[in-house]
Amino acid sequence: MGNSVFFALSGVGLALSKSNQQLSFGVWFWRRLTRIYPSLILVVLFFLILLDNHWNGSFLGLVKLAIWPTQFGFITQLLVFYIPYYFVAKLDRIRLRNLVGLLFIPFGVSYLYATGFAGIAGAGEYLHPLTITNWIFYFQMMVLGGLIAKEVKAQNPLLINMSRNSIACPLLAGTLLAYVVTKALIVLNFLRESYFLLNMLIIPVIVALFLFSMTSSIQTLLKNKAIGNTVNLISGLTLEIYLVHACLLSYPFAESFIFPLNIIVFVTVSLVGSLLVNWLAQKAQLRLRSLTA
Predict the structure, then answer these.
(1) What gap in Å lies between CA 1 and CA 287, rounded to an integer?
(2) What whole-number distance in Å separates Cα of residue 12 and Cα of residue 102?
(3) Taking the model in full, what pTM does it have?
(4) What are the φ/ψ torsions at residue 96 (nearest 5 degrees)?
């Protein structure tokens, strides 16, 4: 769920970005790299090398940690997705709708193959059929995010109507409930593990989340200066929060506190760490982007 929402939000931001329309692919892609790598390298150096000793001492090991393919699957996927998405984001709404639908074909085919996958001797992680299925689905969510962004920008009457409080709120509650109940039934062994079913339930949840964000209640809240600034701050820290959060999950320090103090400690450390990483990364970004100015 978290990765799907992350890629959908990435799709929204990139689809609405003016730089996507105005910059050449080379300059645009360089800007994407300078957004990701300073934060990634800082997190790798501090959490994975200094604290967790993930580095084996070799240059190749350092490249694998900090450059490619990294310890963070979503970073690897995002960097690959940037290449086709630059062109996808230029499509009109009709073509984007068609693309979202067409992506169900490779997703379904790869999933059917993955369900019968017994293992290939010597196959790496990225050759596993279920991993390929994941990649297809996450890219589909990125395209879906871009589609929703363009539909909202064009004031699609259906979306505007469905963003009313009386529709969007029950829709979000219902879709989330369906997902949580299904997940619980799988955990309790009342249902067999179904990657396909859970992914299909994620799609309406994402649409409902966007509709909920468009409701008059949420828009009124965002007009409050303190709330609006907080949301803008957190949205700008999404990458760093995700990176720091992923690293902290491997450390048991928060578990030593009783509930709910452990949650408070975990969130506080994640936020402070993300702010520090973002602050340092921005300084590096300015220097790197000046190379193409």
Answers:
(1) 35
(2) 19
(3) 0.88
(4) -65, -40
Specify the long-range contacts of residues 49-58, CB closer than 8 Å, at least 24 apart.
Answer: 51/251, 52/247, 52/250
Distances (CA, A) of 137 to 119, 142, 222: 21, 9, 31
Greatest Cα pair distance, the chain, in angstroms, is: 58
Q: Provide the token pair at 87.
A: 């062109």
155 torsion bin: left (phi>0), alpha (psi -120 to 50), beta (else): left
Q: Which pLDDT band holds residue 97 (cuts at 50, 70, 90)?
A: very high
* Residues 239, 36 contacting (CB under 8 angstroms): yes
Highest mean pLDDT: which range of 20-24, 78-82, 224-228: 78-82
Please state, in angstroms and rounded to a whole number, the distance separating the CA atoms of residues 232 and 64: 32
- Please report where in the chains the tokens 């169900």 appear, as a residue: 104
- The phi-psi region of residue 259 (left if phi > 0; otherwise alpha if psi is between -120 and 50; otherwise beta) is beta
- Residues 227 and 114: their CA atoms lie apart, in Å, by 44
pLDDT of residue 293: 61
Span 243-266, pLDDT tens digits: 998 888 777 666 677 777 878 888
Which residues have a Cβ under 8 Å from the Cβ of 145 and sit 6 or more positions away?
7, 8, 9, 10, 11, 12, 15, 206
Per-residue model confidence as pLDDT tens digits over 54-66: 788 888 988 888 8
Is the Cβ–Cβ distance between 263 and 270 less than 8 Å?
no
Percent of the chain whose predicted confidence (pLDDT) is above 70: 91
Residue carrying the six token digits 């390929």: 132
CA distance 111 to 105: 10
How many angstroms from the chain centroid is the CA of residue 287? 26
Whole-angstrom distance, CA of residue 4 vs CA of residue 93 = 21
What whole-number distance in Å separates Cα of residue 96 and Cα of residue 26?
23
Asked if residue 147 has pLDDT above 50, the reply is: yes
